[in-house]
Automatic annotation (TrEMBL):
This is Helix-turn-helix domain-containing protein. It comes from marine sediment metagenome.
């Protein structure tokens, strides 16, 4: 079985080249993909810290 990489909010923002505010927006409200379909950034909370799946 493979493995997944998770980033904290700041790391995810740096990886994507966006602000932390944008990452939180993608988690809560989603974003439209190239086909106009709404998608949400997958996130999980571990020991009170939000983590983003790569």
């Amino acid at each position: 079985m493979g493995y997944k990489i998770y980033y904290d909010i700041l790391g995810a923002a740096a990886y994507a080249g966006v602000t932390r505010h944008t990452i939180y927006h993608w988690i809560r409200k989603g974003v439209k993909d190239v086909d106009g379909k709404k998608v949400w950034l997958p996130a999980r909370i571990v020991e009170g810290e939000t983590q983003i799946n790569e």
